[in-house]
Amino acid sequence: MTAAVEEALRRLEASVALLESAVARRLDAERSHSDLETELEIMRDDRARLAAELDGATARLAEMQAVTEEVDHRLGRAIGTVEGVLGRSGEPRED
Question: Which of UniProt's keywords are assigned here (predicted)?
Answer without folding.
Answer: Coiled coil
